[in-house]
Write a structure and sequence with these properties.
- The structure holds two protein chains of two kinds.
- Chain A is mostly helical.
- Chain A is 75% helix and 0% strand.
- Chain A has eleven helices and no strands.
- In chain A, helix 4 crosses helix 10 and helix 10 packs across helix 11.
- The longest helix of chain A is centred in the last third of the chain and has 22 residues.
- By secondary structure, chain B is α+β, with helices and mostly antiparallel strands.
- Chain B has 15 helices and eleven strands.
- In chain B, strands 1, 2, 3, 4, 5, 6, 7, 8, 9, 10 and 11 form an eleven-stranded mixed sheet that branches.
- In chain B, a hairpin with a 5-residue loop joins strand 8 and strand 9.
- In chain B, helix 11 runs antiparallel to helix 12.
- About 13% of the residues of chain B have low confidence.
- Classes of the chains: A mainly alpha, B alpha+beta.
Chain lengths: 190, 377
C-alpha cells in the first residue's frame, strides 16, 4: 500500500507532533489519510465486524497520548496499523467477544460471496478456506501474517509495531504461513 | 511443508536484506531448488488470495465522516478533561506558594491557620468544570455572575460538557430567545437567525425555556428542533407538525419512530449503485417528507454529493448552500463548503470560493486546497 502523495502537505511526523500538542485538525488529517488502512487491517485480523468501528475510533483517540512515541519516519502507516492490531488484540481477549467471533464463523465469506466481485475472481472456495484458516491461527501469528503479507510491512516494521523482537516476528510469520499453506493444500486442493 | 536450508532467504530477498553477492547466489540456488521455487510460488499465491480479505471497508462514506466527527469530538473532550503538563506545573507552583504562605502566616501568628480558597480560585476551578466547543464561525461569550455561570450563544453551534453543579450553583446557556439550564450534562445547541434552532442532549438532562413557552425537559438521547424549521417541509409534513401540540411534537428521540428508513436506504442504494441523478431526487424527496428525521441531515448532504457526482456542480452548490444554512454545525459542513467553493471556482468566482472556505481556514486539508486550486490565496 502506498502512502498517498502529499506535495506541500505536512508530514506524518509533523502531524503527530501537532496531535501530541492537542491540535485536533492534525488528528482529522491523519484520520483522512489512514482510516481506510486501519479499518482494513482490523477487518483482516478478524475483529468482529460490529467492533471494527469502535476499534478504529479507539486507535485514533489513542494518538494524542502516544504520538510522542512515533519514531519520525516518513509514513506512520505501519506504526498506526501496529497500534490498531495491539488494541484489537487486547480487545479480543474478552471471552464474550471470542464467542461472537466463533458464532460468526464464515459470515465474512458468505457476505463476500454475494457482494464482492473480487472474491469470485480469486475463487470463493480459496477465500473461504483462507479465512477459516486465518481464524484458526493464534492471534499472535495472525497479526504478523496480516501486517507482513497482506499489509506489506517488513518483518522488522511489524515487529516494531507489535513490540516484539524481529526474530520472534519472523518465527511467527514462518509458522503462520506454514499452517495456512497446509490448510490450503488440505481444503482448497493446492 | 518441505524446507530447504536456504528457504529463510526467501523472506530476506523480499525485504532487501541480502547483499548483491548473496542475492545473486540465492537466485542461482532458487532456479535449481524445487523446494524454494515451490515455497516462493505458494507464498505469493497465499498473498494474492489474502489481498481480497477485508476489501471495501468501511464502504459507507457517511459512516466514515460520522466516525471522524465522533473521534474529533471525543478527542476534544478528553483533551479538555486532562490537565496539560503546563497546567500541572502551574497548579504545583500555586500549591507551593499557598503552602509556603500558609506556613509563614501560621508561624507569625503562632496559631494554626487553614488555607481557604479565595473566591477567584473557586471561580477559576468552576471554569475548568465546563468545556465549551464552538463550531466554525460561532459567536458566543461566557461570564460568571456570582454563583451562576452564563454562556451566551448568539449564532452557530456549541457543544458543552458541564460537570455536576453544586447545590447553590447554576449553569445557564443563553440563546437569544430563552435559556437552557443544566446540572451536569453533555449537549449541543444550535442558534440561527436569533432563535434556538436545535438542542441535542448526549448525557444528563437539560431544561429548555423559550420565550413564553412552558419549560421543556430533555433527557439523554433526546433532541429538540425548532418547529419553525417545518417551513421547508412538504405540505403534508407541515400539516402533521402543525396539528400536533407544539412542545411534545418537537421533542424527538434520536431514533425517530416516524422515520422512513426504507426510503433512505433506497436512496443510499441508488447512490452506491452510481445512479446519482435518481439518488439526488430520492434524497431530496426524503428530506422534504421527513425534515425532522435525524437522517435528514445526512440525506441533505448526500443530495449535494450525488449532484456533484452526476456532474451538476452548480445545482450541487445550491443544495450545499442550503445545507450549510440549515446545519451549520454539521459534521458534513466542511465538505458542503468544499462543494460550494468548487462550483464557485468553476464559475471563475474566486472570491466566493475563498469565502465559502473561510470558516475552515485554520484547518486546511488536501480537499480544501484542491477545491480552491488556482483561487488559493
Amino acid at each position: 500500500m502506498k502512502t498517498p502523495s502529499r506535495t506541500n502537505a505536512r508530514t506524518d511526523a509533523e502531524l503527530l507532533a501537532q496531535v501530541a500538542r492537542g491540535e485536533l485538525g492534525a488528528l482529522g488529517e491523519l484520520y483522512d489519510r489512514y482510516q481506510r488502512d486501519v479499518w482494513r487491517v482490523l477487518t483482516r485480523t478478524m475483529v468482529h465486524q460490529g467492533d471494527v468501528e469502535d476499534l478504529v475510533q479507539a486507535t485514533f483517540l489513542a494518538l494524542p497520548k502516544i504520538a510522542a512515541s512515533f519514531d519520525g519516519r516518513d509514513s506512520c502507516r505501519a506504526w498506526l496499523c501496529g497500534v490498531a492490531v495491539r488494541l484489537a488484540s487486547r480487545h479480543r481477549r474478552g471471552f464474550g467477544r471470542w464467542l461472537r467471533v466463533l458464532t460468526s464463523f464464515g459470515d465474512e465469506a458468505r457476505r463476500r460471496r454475494v457482494s464482492d466481485p473480487q472474491a469470485s475472481a480469486v475463487g470463493r472456495q480459496e477465500l473461504r478456506v483462507l479465512e477459516r484458516a486465518l481464524r484458526e491461527l493464534t492471534d499472535k501469528k495472525r497479526e504478523v501474517f496480516v501486517l507482513v503479507e497482506l499489509e506489506g510491512l517488513s518483518a522488522d516494521d511489524a515487529a516494531r509495531a507489535l513490540g516484539v523482537p524481529a526474530a520472534t516476528a519472523r518465527t511467527r510469520l514462518f509458522h503462520a504461513r506454514a499452517e495456512l499453506l497446509e490448510a490450503m493444500q488440505r481444503e482448497a486442493g493446492w | 511443508m518441505q524446507q530447504c536450508d536456504r528457504s529463510w532467504e526467501l523472506d530476506a530477498v523480499r525485504e532487501g536484506r541480502l547483499s548483491p553477492s548473496d542475492l545473486e547466489s540465492f537466485e542461482r540456488h532458487r532456479r535449481a531448488c524445487e523446494i524454494c521455487g515451490a515455497l516462493a510460488a505458494d507464498a505469493e499465491r497465499l498473498r494474492q488470495v489474502g489481498q481480497s480479505l477485508g476489501l471495501g471497508a468501511p464502504g459507507d462514506e457517511v459512516r466514515v465522516r460520522r466516525l471522524r466527527g465522533r473521534i474529533l469530538r471525543e478527542a476534544a473532550l478528553a483533551d479538555a478533561r486532562s490537565p496539560s503538563p503546563r497546567g500541572i506545573l502551574l497548579a504545583c507552583a500555586v500549591a507551593l506558594v499557598v503552602l509556603v504562605g500558609s506556613f509563614v502566616v501560621w508561624s507569625r501568628l503562632h496559631a494554626p491557620q487553614v488555607a481557604v480558597p479565595t473566591p477567584r480560585a473557586v471561580a477559576s476551578s468552576k471554569v475548568e468544570a465546563v468545556t465549551v466547543l464552538p463550531g466554525p464561525a460561532t459567536t458566543w461569550s461566557r461570564r460568571r455572575d456570582g454563583t451562576t455561570e452564563r454562556v451566551r450563544l448568539d449564532d452557530g453551534l456549541l457543544v458543552l460538557e458541564v460537570r455536576h453543579q453544586g447545590p447553590d450553583e447554576r449553569f445557564v446557556v443563553e440563546p437569544p430567545d430563552g435559556e437552557i439550564e443544566v446540572r451536569g450534562t453533555r449537549f449541543e445547541v444550535v442558534v440561527r437567525e436569533k432563535a434556538t434552532w436545535s438542542v441535542r442532549v448526549l448525557e444528563g438532562r437539560v431544561a429548555l425555556r423559550r420565550g413564553g413557552a412552558p419549560e421543556l425537559l430533555l433527557g439523554a438521547g433526546d433532541s429538540w428542533t425548532s418547529p419553525t424549521l417545518t417551513v421547508v417541509a412538504a405540505p403534508a409534513a407541515v400539516a402533521a407538525v402543525a396539528a400536533a401540540p407544539s412542545t411534545s411534537a418537537a421533542v424527538t428521540p434520536r431514533a425517530t419512530a416516524g422515520s422512513d428508513g426504507l426510503a433512505y436506504e433506497r436512496a443510499m442504494k441508488l447512490y452506491r449503485d452510481g445512479e446519482y441523478e435518481d439518488a439526488a431526487r430520492a434524497f431530496r424527496s426524503f428530506v422534504a417528507a421527513h425534515p425532522q428525521d435525524p437522517a435528514a441531515e445526512d440525506a441533505s448532504f448526500l443530495e449535494a454529493s450525488a449532484l456533484t457526482q452526476s456532474g451538476r456542480a452548480d445545482a450541487a452548490a445550491l443544495v450545499a448552500e442550503r445545507f450549510l444554512e440549515r446545519y451549520p454545525g454539521s459534521i458534513h459542513a466542511r465538505d458542503a463548503a468544499i462543494l460550494v467553493a468548487r462550483a464557485a471556482r468553476g464559475r471563475g468566482d474566486c472570491d466566493a470560493a475563498r469565502r465559502a472556505l473561510a470558516p475552515w481556514s485554520a484547518t486546511s486539508s488536501p480537499g480544501m486546497s484542491a477545491a480552491l486550486g488556482r483561487c488559493a490565496p
